[in-house]
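User: Please go through the entry that follows and flag anything odd:
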Amino acid sequence: MSKLPVNDPWARLRGFTKARIGLGRAGDAPPLESLLEFQLAHARARDAVHLPFDTDAIKDVLEDLNPIVVASQADDRATYLRRPDLGRRLASEDAARLTAGRWDAAFVIADGLSATAVMAHAAPVLRAVLPKLKGWSVAPPVIASQARVALGDDIGERLNAVMVAILIGERPGLSAADSLGIYLTWQPKIGRQDSERNCLSSIHPPDGMLYEDAAARFAWLMHEGRARRLTGIALKDEGAALALR
């Protein structure tokens, strides 16, 4: 942040937010330091969108879980950005990689709009969630490239999973280019609406949600979703409130 006088009334507030507030000015322009920080944040956001997704690296980290690597129908990043619909459907040649079973849950790790976020946070979050699902039948994780949230519905339906959770890179902003989101859908199938999902977002420690906090809240949603046989707007995230009580 730009250095302002000690008596600057914004100084204390800037300690509580990543937002660019009270930056000061140099004439009728922002100070050079603030301008350079903004340009750096913009470059990081663009890089997060276009950075290639290293599926092999994720597969190696999760090797003990026997992950499966697939792709959407978007052949490349440019197509993915122009055609969101193709990112929601599984590539036909990858369908055979998925075997239907009797799974209580399936997890999909997807690049989304920030491969940076997925490479940094997806595996630790998954590792934190799995111990909280004792007694559940969990399918081998699926690693999906050029993926949108709804690709989880296609994958979950093919696996015959009761519910699917997709860990996906969120749209990067100028305060966070590595934010991970998790979406949960009961009885996944092609055509599910966003209102039928639950979401946790802004998982990117230390500035965003911590891994263990995200895992605890998401596991609560999974257990409650299975008990109530639903997800979406009818399932409210009461886990954090219950923990405080």
The mean pLDDT is 90. The chain has one domain: 50-244.
